[in-house]
Amino acid sequence: MKFLKIIIIGIVTSFFFTSCEDKYTMPEEIVIPDDSGGEIGKLEHPRILLKKGEENQIALNMIGDEKWMTLHQGILSESDNIIVLQPVERILSGRRLLDISREALRRIFYLSYSYRMTSDKKYSERAEKEMVAISKFTDWNPSHFLDVAEMTTAFAIGYDWLFETLSEESRATIKDAILKKGLEPSLDTQYNEFLNLQSNWNQVCNAGMTYGALAVYEDYPELAQSIIDRSIESVKKSMPQYAPDGTYPEGYGYWDYGTTFNVLLISAMEKAFNDDFGLPESKGFMKTAEYMTHMVSPSSFRCFNFADSKSTTGIMPAMFWFSKKVEDTGLLFNEAYQLSNINANTYTNRLLPAVMIWGIGVKTSTIKTPEKLVWAGQGKSPVAMMRTSWKKEDNPIYLTLKAGSPAVSHNHMDIGSFIIETDGIRWGTDFGTEDYTILEANNLDIWNYNQGSDRWTVFRNNNKSHNTLTVNNRDQQAKGTASIRSYSSSKDFKNAITDLSAIYSSELKKSVRGVAIVDDSYVVIQDEIENTGKDAIIQWRMATEATASITNDYTITLSQSRKTLKIIVDPAIGATLKTWSTKPSRSYENQNTGTTMVGFEIKIPANGQKTLLVKLLPGNVTTASKTTPPLDQWSKD
Q1: In the β-sheet with 576-580, what is the strand arrangement from edge to edge?
Q2: I need a labelling partner for 178 at 20 to 30 A (CA). Which of 31, 63, 459, 563 fits?
Q3: What is the percent of the chain with per-residue pLDDT over 70, rounded to a whole number?
Q4: In whole angstroms, what is the distance from residue 139 CA to residue 277 CA?
Q5: Which of 193, 161, 194, 157 is nearest to 178 (CA)?
């Protein structure tokens, strides 16, 4: 610890006594006239995210805070690792250059940060070498414009932050690449479809173009201003996706992607122009960090990974920006965990230096525990999430419910699906995303969300792989939609209900699902079904990573890490307990090794009604005799 203090004192001392005038003189204010169309006044590099002298604030923030110091030192160490690597090459993966663009962004951002925090030219020279090499690429793959956006972001940060250290020749080369390979392709209608999209593409691409425009503004003021104005107006088309409650339609992973770049855009505007142009006022946007806080389980710290998301989690830079804006350190509960568990994967995050910037003023020891145990929100992908505690040592129950529509961008036929964790084990899981590149290489049209699309033939995208119902072996209705009908934070009966009738409209007259945590002890999943004029075969399915055994006619026992969960199906309904393979029919899809589908099958006669009651009991719970009322009698907030 003494060693860390010596390092940080040395850093701060160097800022105040080495070239003090240069380091601590703030640039003149950058102002856009009221019409947002005039010239910016006198400019000074750096101007993106972190102005000259503001490195001091990062250094001061590390004093007495070991977590910040560890993260900072990790970025420096990773920058040292990058120095010995050869520059990236223009190698496509399928139709994408995205992996290369992302690695370039990681390298250039880390190296630029390391130079600004140490003034050691080994970092700036290596970043310069990377950018000069990439400038020689024939293009940055504008046919998949995310590739261009991330590469332009990388170059903008490197050019702006290292401007004074770059040779005249390199400046000209890098600036020309930003213009010719970054900004100009965004003016071509065959590449700029992102301007009218509502997805993460809009957020990422507009942020990238804004960064490029800011970097070269003094040389191309009219072009740069037009791109900045365009980006501000265009990104407004994507931000209503958070309305009304902060949910994000594309799920956890794409929240991290789209929202972080959205915040990068806003933060750059705030820093350069002292104006956020009203973007944070978009309905639901400033609520979305609370949504994301609840999306992570309190015991395994895996996420509720519906849609095209993985269950793994990491530091989310944007959460620090939101926390500061709304003055709520509870939003950093999961980030505190990540800061306490830094590992090699931490440094794969290409935007990690932004944490050091947006974390200025945050003392990690003061991050508090959130208060709410239940959170529900409407939107294009409505969800409800509940837990019995935020403390891992309490062995909390974590339960979620997914509503919405399969036809929403990046979504699956997972409507009505749930995640359950008890005793630190994720018993009911979600397989997450399938590899796009492999699917596209096999000529599957996975970006078509219509009913008969190839997308739904992919096992991981279909309802048969999710913790929901399958009726007559048919797909869910792709264009159907379901909301969170009600929810309750009642201490003894936390619950949420969704009406799935539109999701199964081709097979059923009515289907309503409720999920609940009873007495902070066990979980109930209850489906109330009304059939049409034909018989229906219903499969209740749950994916699990545990070992499953059918104990008797109404009990399935799951075992993992010496813990157990019992799935008890109401004996009165006459169901047949089953397990299903999770191996897809196509060899090139993920084989889902080590997983099983468990559940039951039941026949409901024509015009029949049936209540499917399932109780999930952790190993320390021996009975669950409390009567479960009909869904219309469940408590509501």
Answers
A1: 469-471, 536-544, 596-604, 576-580
A2: 31
A3: 93
A4: 32
A5: 157
Q: How many CA atoms lie within 13 A of 619 on its CB side?
A: 14
d(CA 129, CA 551): 64
- % of the chain beyond a pLDDT of 90: 92
Q: What is the token pair recorded at 223?
A: 């072009």
Report yes or no on whether pTM surpasses 0.90: yes
User: Model confidence over 127-180: pLDDT tens digits?
Assistant: 999 999 999 999 999 999 999 999 999 999 999 999 999 999 999 999 999 999
Helices (H) and strands (E) counted in the chain, each on its own, are 16, 17
Report the 10 Å Cβ neighbour count for 207: 27
What residues contact residue 413 under an 8 Å CB cut-off, 6+ apart?
A: 406, 456, 461, 462, 463, 466, 475, 476, 478
* 290 CB-contact burial (10 Å; exposed 0-12 / middle 13-18 / buried 19+): buried
> What is the 3-state secondary structure of 453-490?
CHHHHCHHHCHHHCCCEEECCCCCCCCCCECEEEEECC
pLDDT value of residue 20? 31
Task: Return the C-alpha torsion angle 501, 504, 509, 514, nearest 10.
Answer: -40
User: pLDDT digit string (tens) for 196-229?
Assistant: 999 999 999 999 999 999 999 999 999 999 999 9
- Is pLDDT at 430 greater than 50 in this prediction? yes
Contact 430, 467 (CB under 8 A): yes
Give the pair of three-digit tokens for residue 183. 């900004």
Query: Who's near 487: CB < 8 A, 6+ residues apart?
Result: 374, 376, 384, 495, 496, 497, 636, 637
